[in-house]
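Input record (one chain):
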Amino acid sequence: MTVINSHRKAKALKQGSRRPAKDLCSECGLCDTYYIHYVKEACAFINQQIAELETIAHGRSRDLNSENDLYFGVHQEMMSAKKIEPIEGAQWTGIVSTIACEMLTRGLVEGVVCVQNSDEDRFQPKPIIATTTEEILGAKVNKPTLSPNLSVLEQIEQSGMKRLLVIGVGCQIQALRAVEDKLGLEKLYVLGTPCVDNVTRAGLQKFLETTSKSPDTVVAYEFMQDFRVHFKHEDGSVEKVPFFGLKTNQLKDVFAPSCMTCFDYVNSLADLVVGYMGAPFGWQWIVVRNDIGREMLDLVKNQLHTQPVISRGDRTQAVQNSIPAYDQGVTLPMWAAKLMGVVIEKVGPKGLEYARFSIDSHFTRNYLYVKRNYPEKLKDHVPEYAEKIVSQYKLPD
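The corresponding structure, as predicted from the sequence alone:
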């Protein structure tokens, strides 16, 4: 008990205090608890340790000579899936919510760490430990702003819960894995979503106002496989804006510095990952990383349509062309952006190749950002797999 209790003497940082990761803080919530005691080891932006934690979580780190391992992390299986009967109002068909509800109702866990909206603001995240299916369903739909999911860690330890499901993104899960053995749990399940380009609430407002025709009615959005941003509005309508028509020159400062220095798009340390980027349009991409992930997926397999993953096309030239275009803040006229979007949708990368396109685009951009803004961190902060991916491309100085 001494090991578990040693952190209780630490004090959480006050709201608004400067964080140990400084400008790179992703507001994961760890420092809002006495687990700040472990921040220098646990924080993804102070101590990048994905390979070491992969070995602990999955029994091995990724094989850099296997393309799928290199890009998507340690895994037993990948597939495309969608709910046979979708959950109304879910981001897509509700696979994440369904898994969480099944785990709770079957008694596999006593609580689920998830994120609802605050009562005042549809985009302000409110992390909770859900103990009812109603609370879980109240957390459906992705939150596109930085969210302090780990701020509930003290409550977990003090509640006496022994079996827990945590839903989160890469930076949150890396910190969680680093303190997992301090939580006093008998069983931890980790259900992850891929994550890229999160924003502060102010940054989100700027993105919506710059990009959508009706920013005040947007309830959710996603950067989709058809190379368009899909905005879902309150009336159920979907507005689609081509990637190539985004006002890049106005949006370069909108994304959080933590996201611009992140190389864990695919949530490498979760047991099971549910996203969309490696699946055909309208389907979800599922990555089973270990036996715990398989146990979670098996709970809902009979509620899903599934199909094998596909991979078509060649991303490399599109990625290479996009590097200087983003770097210089090039924005096409909307007619040209729409035309390019149509062409790329027809002949561009699909399935896993689209996922590689997205990873390559973000890793090259983020590598440049770290190199230019935090050169002293470049060697230790960029994982070996990301170095190998970025090395395929010619980067500007």
